[in-house]
Amino acid sequence: MQHVQKETIVIIEDEQEISELIQSQVASFGFTNLPFLDGKKALDFIQSDEAKNIQLFIIDRMLPSVNGIEICKFIRLYNSTKMTPILMLTALSTPEQIVEGLDAGADDYMTKPFDHNILTARVRSLLRRRQLSTKQIENKKVLQHKGLLVDTEQCKAWIDNLPVDLTLSEYKILCCFLHSPGKVLTRNQLVEFIQDGPVHVTDRTIDTHIFGLRKKLGEYASIIETIRGIGYRVIAHE
Predict the structure, then answer these.
(1) 3-state DSSP assignment of residue 92
(2) Architecture of domain 8-136
(3) Radius of gyration of the chain from its Cα atoms, rounded to whole angstroms
(4) Structural domain boundaries of the chain?
(5) How many distinct helices (H) and strands (E) make up the chain?
(6) Each residue's pLDDT tens digit, 53-82
(7) In CATH terms, is domain 139-234 a member of 1.10.10.10?
(8) What sign results for the dihedral spanned by CA atoms 121, 133, 88, 56?
(9) Helix locations, 91-220, DSSP H
(10) What does the alpha-carbon distance between residue 16 and residue 139 come to, in Å, rounded to a whole number?
(11) What does pTM read for this prediction?
């Protein structure tokens, strides 16, 4: 069994040459690179006592034993890893395949062949996002994007100290975005987030809520980006 002594990036890629290339690209971050060529072996490790301090998963989709989609779903359900960022790196590149990967739990999705500098930038972004998320866990009551402020205890929002009148669905969507700045959220993920009891929410309903939310955000409407064929995200700010 491999031991994780310090902060680690787990790389699950069945092509040895590509795995070694990824390892060399992320080596500059100072973390241990832990590669797996087989999906089941990776899952066995994740559930072992040796799996500690995992900062990021980089996962291929097409793997022996267990595919990348199933691994993503497991990581999101497993208590020790459910908040750990996932970068899916794969040759499958249609909008439908990207949506499937994001819906399974991936935070970001890159297609092969990939640019080395872009891979490094994506890894840096996900690691930075993890650090920010860790800080936010310590204070979940207030979510903020510059002059846009949401108090989750009062369920109220303000722009430059002026109250914003949001519907419950608009409020839930805004909270979902602000909890994960920079992360692409598919329409399916937003549906699951705002679904409440017997009320049926559809993709078209989500688009309607986004339209209404943007109108009410005024000058902050542009922070919500449309990712064509996939969903939406709120721009991460420094």
Answers:
(1) coil
(2) 3-Layer(aba) Sandwich (3.40)
(3) 19
(4) 8-136, 139-234
(5) 8, 12
(6) 899 999 999 999 999 999 999 999 888 898
(7) yes
(8) positive
(9) 95-104, 116-137, 168-179, 187-194, 203-217
(10) 42
(11) 0.69
